Amino acid sequence: MARLLRNDQMGPYRIDPADFPKDGKAIWVCGCGLSANMPYCDKAHNACRQVEQPGRLYTYDPKTRQVVKDEPDPGAI
Ligand code: FES
After folding, report:
1. Pairwise CA distance, residues 39 & 23, whole Å
2. What is the Å distance from ligand 1's center to 77 Cα?
């Protein structure tokens, strides 16, 4: 079984230490879906920011986290 999810987030979600205290430091949760260390951001989102363009739909290889398909986004407004 396979599943494709649409994800438009280009960076992490910051969890404030006041909301989730852990060593008094903020936690960065992956929002791009490419982290190899889920649920935490491992800066793999930099690939999104360097490659992706508006109006395009990208498919990433889950192991290499490299773009394997770049096509017009049928859901783009
Ligand atoms: S937001 Fe996904 S790796 Fe940073």
Report:
1. 18
2. 25
